[in-house]
Specification:
The protein has a domain of about 160 residues: Rossmann fold, CATH 3.40.50.150. The protein is about 40% helix and about 20% strand. It is built from eight helices and seven strands; from the N terminus they run αααβαβαβαβαβαββ. Strands 3-2-1-4-5-7-6 form a seven-stranded mixed beta sheet, with helices on both faces. Helix 3 packs across helix 4 and helix 7 packs across helix 8. The longest helix has 17 residues. It is globular. It starts with 6 loop residues before the first helix and ends in a 15-residue tail after the last strand.
């Protein structure tokens, strides 16, 4: 095993740690070769990528339906699935070469995941996957744009969980009004994985409100 797991990984993945380690090996080899992961990331895959994403599970309800937008190399969707096999997860990714890689890795690991080629803003994707409990995203788009893509996929009261970095407070200050206009609640910063990853993962959480912007209520028939 070229990239042995840190001690914290056992706590996060439990009896699925071996599968998580195989996923990391895939990221470090074919993931780099096929351009899904930068070559400089190979030595910090566990803390910076896999554990950083898996700890978001702290915010996800039991047996939730999760849509992972712009999944790329399966982050955060695959780590979430490995940490929480109770979740029903679909990975939405527009690029064919990434979809092909994701399908290969999921088959090798024997995971119950769906891969959907497309963009979250496409009507066909929205019709197929709307009503989700949670929409996740990592390094996909600025907060307001991401909310415009993600909120329509959520049920009322569902949450968008965007894994962000140190700039999260600035993004919220800039985009909070637009997020509310799009039908989201006030964005809130959540820290996940305290004591597991250092620094903890910064997640911006936005609840979908009862009605989305641009979708007027239907008039009652008389």
């Amino acid at each position: 095993m070229e990239h042995p797991p840190p001690p914290a990984a056992q706590k996060v993945f439990g009896d699925r740690l071996e599968l998580a380690a195989r996923y990391v090996d895939h990221l470090a080899t074919s993931g780099v070769e096929r351009g899904l992961i930068g070559p400089r990331e190979a030595d910090r895959l566990w803390d910076r990528h896999v554990l950083n994403c898996a700890v978001v599970a702290e915010l996800v309800p039991d047996s939730a339906k999760v849509v992972d937008v712009g999944s790329g190399a399966g982050l955060p969707g695959i780590p979430l699935c490995l940490a929480r096999p109770d979740l029903r997860i679909v990975l939405v990714e527009p690029l064919a070469r990434r979809v092909e890689w994701l399908e290969e890795i999921i088959a090798d690991l024997g995971l119950s995941l769906t891969v959907e080629r497309g963009r979250a803003e496409e009507n066909a994707i929205r019709r197929r996957w709307e009503g989700a409990d949670v929409v996740t995203a990592r390094a996909v788009a600025p907060l307001a744009r991401l909310a415009g893509w993600s909120l329509p996929l959520l049920r009322t009261g569902g949450r968008m969980l965007a894994v962000k970095g140190a700039s999260a407070p600035q993004e919220i200050e800039r985009d909070a009004a637009e997020v509310r206009r799009l039908g989201g609640g006030t964005p809130v910063i959540e820290l996940c994985g305290t004591g597991i990853v250092d620094p903890p993962s910064t997640v911006v959480s936005v609840e979908r409100q009862a009605r989305l912007a641009g979708r007027p209520r239907k008039k009652r028939s008389t």
